[in-house]
């Protein structure tokens, strides 16, 4: 994301932190699955709940990753049309896209809060031998979706402001990444990896 974008400057560090947390959760899930396979193969013992935790981790992983993907302009887009119109129509399409994402993000946060509230009210447990209190994974899931709703709404409001101020900046901040931007990001990433010795 372009560093002069105020929304990215404010929210990208938190989004990156949540995405890293989700990555560590995924790593933990991979280790759990590996342990499950090895224990079943060599000791004939099963760790109960690996599949249950896997479902929770994937839901939380997605919720935490949405904001980072939005700020990095990594969500999938159909570029065949938008590349063939001028910057004015591109700005309008990018604005509509930003508002569609914001409305969907707010709807998902609202519905996840409803699910969380029901689980707390009825003290719902998972239908598995672990009987996990459902509010625990749902709380993390809701937190990720709430942050996504906040991020998406901030992006949509900023895009709305930019439509009257500078459409080229709206396209640069929230439009499809150009080939030059992708090449520049990969070049910078490669240089950083060489400098850190990775």
Automatic annotation (TrEMBL):
UniProt keyword list: Cell inner membrane, Cell membrane, Membrane, Transmembrane, Transmembrane helix, Transport
Main location as per UniProt: membrane
Protein's UniProt keywords contain Lyase: no
Localization per Swiss-Prot or TrEMBL: Cell inner membrane
Pfam families: DctQ
Domain spans labelled Tripartite ATP-independent periplasmic transporters DctQ component: 29-155
Transmembrane segment boundaries: 12-33, 53-71, 91-110, 139-163
Membrane topology category: Multi-pass membrane protein
Highest taxon of source: Bacteria
Complex formation: The complex comprises the extracytoplasmic solute receptor protein and the two transmembrane proteins.
Family per record: Belongs to the TRAP transporter small permease family.
Stated role: Part of the tripartite ATP-independent periplasmic (TRAP) transport system.
Protein name in the entry: TRAP transporter small permease protein
């Amino acid at each position: 994301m372009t560093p002069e974008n105020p929304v990215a400057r404010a929210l990208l560090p938190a989004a990156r932190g949540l995405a890293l947390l989700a990555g560590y959760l995924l790593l933990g899930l991979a280790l759990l699955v590996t342990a499950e396979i090895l224990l079943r193969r060599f000791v004939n013992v099963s760790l109960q709940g690996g599949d249950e935790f896997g479902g929770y981790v994937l839901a939380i992983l997605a919720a935490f990753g949405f904001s980072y993907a939005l700020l990095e302009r990594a969500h999938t887009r159909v570029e065949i049309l938008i590349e063939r119109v001028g910057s004015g129509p591109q700005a309008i399409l990018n604005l509509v896209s930003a508002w569609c994402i914001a409305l969907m993000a707010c709807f998902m946060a609202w519905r996840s809060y409803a699910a969380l509230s029901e689980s707390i009210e009825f003290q719902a447990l998972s239908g598995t031998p672990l009987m996990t209190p459902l509010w625990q994974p749902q709380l993390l899931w809701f937190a990720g979706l709430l942050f996504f709703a906040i991020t998406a709404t901030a992006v949509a409001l900023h895009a709305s402001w930019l439509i009257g101020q500078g459409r080229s900046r709206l396209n640069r901040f929230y439009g499809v990444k150009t080939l030059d931007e992708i090449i520049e990001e990969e070049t910078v990433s490669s240089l950083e990896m060489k400098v850190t010795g990775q």
